[in-house]
Amino acid sequence: MNATDVTGARTPEAAGVITGARERIDALDDRIIGLIQERAAVSAVIQEARISSGGRRVNLSREMEVLGRYREALGKPGTALAMTLLEMCRGRI
Ligand SMILES: O=C(O)C(=O)C[C@]1(C(=O)O)C=C[C@@H](O)C=C1
């Protein structure tokens, strides 16, 4: 299989552009995954502190704030992304 096959490009020039850009995407995805893992760890610290003080795991007014920030920055898909992030950080409610 040559470079044009794996990229879907029809010319070697386009295949080169795509291969380079995919490397950047992979590097960005690695960072995003790391940030998500870091976010989940920080979120766990908050939840543990709240629970061990007698509070509840979930704080809905804070979740509304988080959802609003993502929606403002990214539009409607931002809300879906934030909901997924929240679920990853505090489990299902
Ligand atoms: O900010 C908090 O109070 C958190 O517990 C963190 C967090 C979050 O991951 O953003 C997680 C659970 C809460 O329901 C609200 C927000």
UniProtKB/TrEMBL annotation:
<dbReference type="InterPro" id="IPR002701">
    <property type="entry name" value="CM_II_prokaryot"/>
</dbReference>
<dbReference type="InterPro" id="IPR036979">
    <property type="entry name" value="CM_dom_sf"/>
</dbReference>
<dbReference type="GO" id="GO:0004106">
    <property type="term" value="F:chorismate mutase activity"/>
</dbReference>
<feature type="domain" description="Chorismate mutase">
    <location>
        <begin position="12"/>
        <end position="93"/>
    </location>
</feature>
<keyword id="KW-0413">Isomerase</keyword>
<dbReference type="InterPro" id="IPR010958">
    <property type="entry name" value="Chorismate_mutase_highGC-bac"/>
</dbReference>
<dbReference type="InterPro" id="IPR036263">
    <property type="entry name" value="Chorismate_II_sf"/>
</dbReference>
<protein>
    <submittedName>
        <fullName>Chorismate mutase</fullName>
        <ecNumber>5.4.99.5</ecNumber>
    </submittedName>
</protein>
<dbReference type="GO" id="GO:0046417">
    <property type="term" value="P:chorismate metabolic process"/>
</dbReference>
<dbReference type="Pfam" id="PF01817">
    <property type="entry name" value="CM_2"/>
</dbReference>
